[in-house]
Amino acid sequence: MWLSGGRMASVGRQSFGSCFRVLGRRGCNTAAVMPEAAGFEGVSDRSDLQDFSVCSSDSFWAAVARQRLSWIRPFHTVQDCDLSQGRIRWFEGGKLNVSVNCLDRHVHTCPERVAVIWERDEPKSEVKLSYRQLLEMTCRLGNLLRRRGVKKGDCVTIYMPPCPLAVASMLACARIGAAHNVVFAGFSADALAERIRDAQSSTVITVNQGVRGGKVIELKKTVDAAIQSCPTVQQVFVAMRTENPVVMTAKDVAMEEVRGHISNQNLLTVLTCEDTVCEPAGMDSEDTLFLLYTSGSTGKPKGLVHTQAGYLLYAALTHRYVFSYHDGDVFSCVADIGWITGHSYSVYGPLANGGTTVLFESTPIYPDPGRYWEMVQRLKINQFYGAPTAIRLLLKYGDKWVHKYDRSTLKTLGSVGEPINTEAWEWYHRVVGQGRCPVVDTWWQTETGGICIAPRPADPDAEIVPGMAMRPFFGIKPVLMDTEVYGSSCVSLCIAQPWPGMARTIHNDPQRFTETYCQPYPGYFFTGDGAYRSKEGYYQITGRLDDVINVSGHRIGTAEIEDVLNQCSAVAESAQLFGFSQFAQRLPKTRSGKIMRRVLRKVVDSELEGLGDLSTLDDPEVVQEIIQGHHDLL
Ligand code: 6R9
């Protein structure tokens, strides 16, 4: 691994060589692109539709919201937003229930369709649940929560690995009107405690132990340690993921009935004493659906607030149109449910669309580097959505792990989380997708709720340029602003008008929301990322703005330089910094696989006091290694 700050000649777009057309149909009618758009006047092709969605955003979103969601009471106002004030409200007057939209309406039409496939850590032991079964599990949990005093407006913290019970817990909260706060089940007790305290949760849901990559993780013990410093917590529901008993305290409530002969290891036999019918709460469009914490570069993590209707609509629409999801497809997003990617594309998007979604509990290399592709073959996966960090890792293990398995069911490959370098993109496209599956590089953030910029391969005339051909999604109007970062000018990506999926505020700190996202360019949403736009109107994301470097007066994003470095076979991954060159064994990464460059920069600048929020760091020891390495270098 190479941390470099040397001079770089000619890096940039010319390195993105190949380009292909997915479909060559020009001018096909709009209804084929998007049936919801059939009635829009003056819209005859995909480009008209994009313009319409931005220029007539009220008409666009009203039509889509009416067709895609099932409402208890219709909305009277499509949007009431003023970005400069940080005011974002969609579909006011409307009432709905998110769990009804994700479950009941599909149970009415296709109760036995598979809703979730739980790809357990133990290979080849998947468990399938139909929409009817998932609704029953959700109702039982909803009744339990209600009976134990959880009310509309409360916030329940969920500390669980991806599994049907975690999804049912999220949906049970939605059913009774509580908000959920899913904390990635790999976070430390301190990180968990900080998030429980900020969310003021009185209820936590967890499992006795997690299992990941063949290793047992003591989740319940971590909760025990965390709640020592969380006075609000009154009860902890504990389900059994393994058969090992854990010490239960006065606050703990076992979720299983005690039945000696039933193995609870599959987490499916819980709460058989609860009723399978649970009256859904009627929620206002702008009631909170969930909080999700994301790390701030300084200070404490931010609890971003997403609300009911707008979020669900946006997750559903992007899931359908970015991935070309069709009824009957098996969709697999391998992100953990503790990240926004898991929320929007393992849970809410696919379920709102009546889809079949895979919940992946394991790692890309357990029991071997063929895990993903063996799973694709066994579960007949049609869309696979993963992170560049995993693709880069698997690429180094060689093609044989991919070739071993049949991937003919795959139709679309997705990437998210970081810029995907050309080498990884090409490998993903050529080796994994056999050159026939479009790769959709999707740009978005916890704050945006769903994908904002991505190719849409099903569109007529769709073109995908590796690492770059990214177009705004319907209703998204990106703008590039000149900005100054660390004394050099950069182009910063903003979004010019609100869209339904965006976060509404920061829990407990609306001021910070406005300052961070709305004030840098009043009237615009500030993303904090840099971008280029080509003459065709395609966007390329260059990385976090505070990671931009200045080489001989050229502004160059970290993505471009890392892209070139990664093509050297000795370099597994790279992170580019100002005027700094060093080899390191490992890079500091978040638990979702993103390189934490700001930490590297602080080390280089010898600002060890101001490393910022490190709670999302995967292995804090790496920071010590790098500090030591840098020290030795000086
Ligand atoms: C969905 C998610 C958001 C940040 C974002 C950007 C980076 C995400 C990307 C990408 C380049 C892509 N990012 N997708 N950069 N190309 N396709 O990852 O949310 O965890 O909040 O991170 O991730 O820097 O600002 P989140």
From TrEMBL:
**SUPFAM superfamilies in alphabetical order:** Acetyl-CoA synthetase-like (SSF56801)
Domain AMP-dependent synthetase/ligase residue range list: 104-484
Report the catalytic activity: acetate + ATP + CoA = acetyl-CoA + AMP + diphosphate
A biological process from GO:
acetyl-CoA biosynthetic process from acetate
Q: Which InterPro entries match?
A: Ac_CoA_lig (IPR011904), ACAS_N (IPR032387), AMP-bd_C_sf (IPR045851), AMP-binding_CS (IPR020845), AMP-dep_synth/lig_dom (IPR000873), ANL_N_sf (IPR042099)
Kindly indicate whether the keyword Ligase belongs to this entry. Answer: yes
GO CC, alphabetical: mitochondrion
Tell me the keywords, alphabetical order.
ATP-binding, Ligase, Lipid metabolism, Nucleotide-binding
GO MF annotations for this entry?
acetate-CoA ligase activity; AMP binding; ATP binding
According to its UniProt record, this protein's enzyme class is ligase
- Report domain Acetyl-coenzyme A synthetase N-terminal positions: 49-102
What EC designation does it have? 6.2.1.1
A Pfam family matched by this chain, by name? ACAS_N
User: Quick check: keyword Lipoprotein in the entry?
Assistant: no
What family is it from? Belongs to the ATP-dependent AMP-binding enzyme family.
Q: What is this protein called?
A: Acetyl-coenzyme A synthetase
Organism, by scientific name, is Echeneis naucrates
